[in-house]
Amino acid sequence: MRNVTKDNITDVFTAYLGDDTDPRVREVLGALARHIHDFAREVNLTHEEWQVGIEFLTRAGEITTPERQEFVLLSDVMGLSSLVDMLHSKPEATSSSVLGPFHVSNPPPLAIGGDMKRDFEGEVLLVEGVVRDSDGAPIPHAEIDIWQTAPNGLYSSQDEEQDIHSFHGLMTTDENGRYAFTTVRPVSYTVPSDGPVGDILNAAGRHPWRPSHLHYIVSAEGYRNLVTEVFPDDDPYLDQDTVFGVRDDLVMTYVPQAAGTFPEGFEISGSVDDAYSKVSFDLILAKG
Amino acid sequence: MRNVTKDNITDVFTAYLGDDTDPRVREVLGALARHIHDFAREVNLTHEEWQVGIEFLTRAGEITTPERQEFVLLSDVMGLSSLVDMLHSKPEATSSSVLGPFHVSNPPPLAIGGDMKRDFEGEVLLVEGVVRDSDGAPIPHAEIDIWQTAPNGLYSSQDEEQDIHSFHGLMTTDENGRYAFTTVRPVSYTVPSDGPVGDILNAAGRHPWRPSHLHYIVSAEGYRNLVTEVFPDDDPYLDQDTVFGVRDDLVMTYVPQAAGTFPEGFEISGSVDDAYSKVSFDLILAKG
User: Fold this and answer.
1) Who has the most CB within 10 Å: A4, A205, B140, B195?
2) pLDDT at residue A158 in the model
3) pLDDT at A157
C-alpha cells in the first residue's frame, strides 16, 4: 500500500480499517470514504475548492452555539435531514418530516381545545384531528408535542420578545384519540441565512424560505414516535421548501369560516366574533 | 416538486439551483448532494447515526483554533487531502504530498549547506539534491521551503519549548540547481488524536502514526509549485501512513556514513567526528 494513487486510495482506506472494527462502523465509514473520494475524482476538486470547504466548515463551527446549529442547517439545506426522515418513515403511517432546531424541552400542558394563541395577534386557526393506528382505529391518550412560529416568523427560541414556551404545547388525546387547539395561522419564514450556510444558498441561487407549518411530535405506547409538519395548500413556498420537508400527505386546506361561527369546545383569548380558519389533520402512527 | 421522496430528492435539489448559478458551483454542489444522498440511501443512515455525525462536526468546530485544524485533520485521515494532491500532481514531476497543518510563515533563510539542526540532539542527516525540470535540466534560484519535526516528534508550532522557526528553513538553489543542508533525522509521529478525529481513528481500529519525513514546498518562476515529502525506506509506518501521503517516488534511502567522513560544504553546530546519514533527493518541477 506504499504507493497510494488516486485510483487505489479507497481500497487503501478500507485496508486500514482494523480487523475488530464494528461491522456497522466499517460499512458506514467505508461508504462515506468511497463517496467522498468519488465526489472529489468526479469533479476533479481543486486545492482552492478544498480550501473553500475547510473554511466553510471552520466558519460553521465558529457560528454554532447551543442556540444556532449551523451543521444541522447545512444538513437541512443539502436535503440530508429530510432524506434520513424519509428513509425511516413507515408507509402505513403519516409521513415524517424534519424536526428542525426550534423544538424546546418541557412544553407547557395544553388541554384539548386549549388556546395556544394567547395574546398574540393574527388570523385565528382552529386545528383538530384524531390520532389513529394504521387500521384507522383511534389511539386514546397519545401525546402530541406541538410547536410553531409566532406571527413575526420567529420561534420562541429565536426571539427574546417571546416567552420560551410561547407557541409550544403538550396535549394528550381523549378517549376517542381526538386533539384540538386554537392558534394563529403560522407564517412562512426564512432559515438563518446570515452565516456560511446562507452563503451556500446565495451561491446556489436559492432562497432561504420555508412554507408555514405546524410542527408535531406524536407518541403513544406501542407505536413509533412520529415527527411531522402540516402545511397549508396555499403557501407560496410549498413547492420550494428550502429544507425539502413537504410531502403530499402533509398538505391540508385551511378552510375559512364565517364570522360569528366560533364553535364550542375551543378556548380563545380574544374575540369569538371574527372570521377564522379551520384545519383538520389526522395523524397515523405505525406500530413500534 | 411538492412530494419530495427518498428517490427524487437529488433531482429536487438540482431543480432548486438558480438559473444564473455559476456552472462550476452547480457542478460541485450537485455532485456533492448526489454523493451525500447516495451515501445515506446506501447505508440506510439512521437518525441516531446522523446525530453522531452532527455531534462530531460540532465537536470538531469547538476544538478548532488557528493552531489546531480538526477539519483539515479529518480531510487528511479520510484520504481527501491526499486525493486532491494526487488529482493535481503532474506525472512528469515529483509526486506532490500533503501540506499538513504544521508549515509556518516567514521561515528563516538557510544557506546552501546550512545547519537546520542547530543545537538539537539526534542522528545527524545530510540532505542534498538538485531541483530539475522534467527534461532533467537543473533549475537555478529555485526556492525550497523546508520543515520537519524536532527529535521529540513535535513541529515547532506544536511545541512551546521550540522557537517557532526551529526546523524550518528557506533555501535558494545555486547556479546548478543544487540544495543541501544539515539536520537531524526526522522521526515518526502521531497526528493529534485527542479530539473527535482521534475518536474516528479509534472506532475504525486505526492508529494515528505518520512515517517520518522532510517536508518541502518548491517554487521557481515558470514552474508549478510543488508541495511534497521525502520518506526514508526503513520507516515502520511507511505502508500505513494515517494520512495516505506516501508515494513510491518519495521514498529514499538514508545511507549510513562512517564516523570521521563529514564532508566539506555542510555546516554543523555539533561534532563532525560522529557517524551520520546522507540522503539525496532530486525535485522535479512541471512547467507552470
Assistant:
1) A4
2) 87
3) 87
For residue A96, give its domain range. Answer: 80-285
Q: What is the least distance, in Å, from the CA of B226 to any CA of chain A?
A: 12
* pLDDT band, very low/low/confident/very high, at B158 (cuts 50, 70, 90): confident
Residue pointed to by grid coordinates 514552474: B223
A283: number of CA atoms within 13 Å, CB side?
36
One domain, residues A196 and A259: yes
- CA A60, CA B88: separation in Å to the nearest integer? 27
Question: Is the CB of A78 less than 8 angstroms away from the CB of B33?
Answer: yes
Tell me the pLDDT tens digit for each residue of B207-229: 999 999 999 999 999 999 999 99
Same domain? A136 vs A36: no
Nearest one of B60, B215, B47, B73 to B144, comparing CA atoms: B215
> d(Cα A161, Cα A67) in Å, to the nearest integer?
16
Whole-number pLDDT of residue B3: 87
Sign for the pseudo-dihedral over CA of A153, A156, A158, A160:
positive
In a domain, B166, yes or no: yes
Task: Name the residue among B12, B21, B81 with its Cβ closest to that of A204.
Answer: B21
CATH number of the domain enclosing A104: 2.60.130.10
Q: d(Cα A231, Cα A240) in Å, to the nearest integer?
A: 13
Q: Are residues B149 and B106 in the same domain?
A: yes
A9 touches B75 (CB < 8 A):
no
Residues A203, A132 share a domain = yes
pLDDT, position A1 = 61
Q: Sorting pLDDT into bands at 50, 70 and 90, what band is B250?
A: very high
CA-based nearest residue in chain A for residue B56 = A71
* Per-residue pLDDT tens over the stretch B54-65: 999 999 999 999
pLDDT at B265: 94
Residue A156 lies in a domain: yes
Within A44-192, residue ranges assigned H as helices are 47-63, 70-77, 80-87
- What are the cell numbers at A218? 406524536
Looking at every residue in chain A, the average pLDDT score rounds to: 95
Structure confidence at residue B1 (pLDDT): 60
Q: Which residues contact B23 (CB under 8 A, 6 or more apart)?
A: none
Residues 236-255 of B with CB under 8 A from A: 238-242, 244-248, 251
B93/B24 same-domain check? no
Indicate if B155 and B252 belong to the same structural domain. yes
Q: What total of structural domains would you count in chain B?
A: 2
What number is the average pLDDT over the span B96-117? 92
Q: Is the pLDDT of residue B45 over 70?
A: yes
ipTM of the complex model: 0.92
| pTM for this entry | 0.91
Find the CB nearest B4 among A26, A204, A247: A247
Is residue A55 assigned to a domain?
no
Q: Which of B21, B31, B238 comes nearest A42 by C-beta? A: B31
Q: How would residue B102 be classed by pLDDT, with cut points 50, 70 and 90? A: confident
